[in-house]
Amino acid sequence: MAEYRRLREELAQNITAEDLEQLKCACKEDIPSEQSEAIATSHHWFTFLEQHGKLDKDDLSYIEHIFEISRRPDLLTMVVQYRTHVLKISEEDEVDTKLTRIPSAKKYKDIIRQPSEEEIIKLAPPPKKA
To answer: What average pLDDT does the segment 7-26 reach?
Structure first.
């Protein structure tokens, strides 16, 4: 449970007010407009999703879907890492489970990794003027 809380907190820290509006819009079919207006923070959004059965420590498929359609591969990557390391669902297994609605989520796994030394382009200093 501590890992799940840590994931929720990390996700919440990476969701700005503008992002939250986009995420709420992406799930407008599941959040009535009057309740959507009352959701002011990402913490409230996660709590709402949990209370309505859309989010659980063992089932993150709904937010995976929302992060993908909202074009937030950075957040999706965090969820995929949680699923792989904490829930112990490997990339091969994830296609066979019902825990994800988007087997394509693994394509985002390496998107936010740091480049290796070989991948970094070194620029030469600018030429000196005579």
So the answer is: 87
pLDDT value at residue 97: 45
* In contact, 11 and 57? CB cutoff 8 Å: no
Biggest alpha carbon–alpha carbon distance for the chain: 70
Instruction: Using the Cα atoms of residue 105, residue 110, residue 113 and residue 119 in order, give the sign of their dihedral.
Output: negative
The domain total for the chain is 1
CATH of residue 65? 1.10.533.10
Sign of CA dihedral 56, 2, 70, 64: negative
Q: What is the pLDDT of residues 65-88, one digit of tens each?
A: 888 888 888 888 888 887 877 667
Model pTM greater than 0.85? no
Q: Look up the domain containing 77 and give its range.
A: 1-97
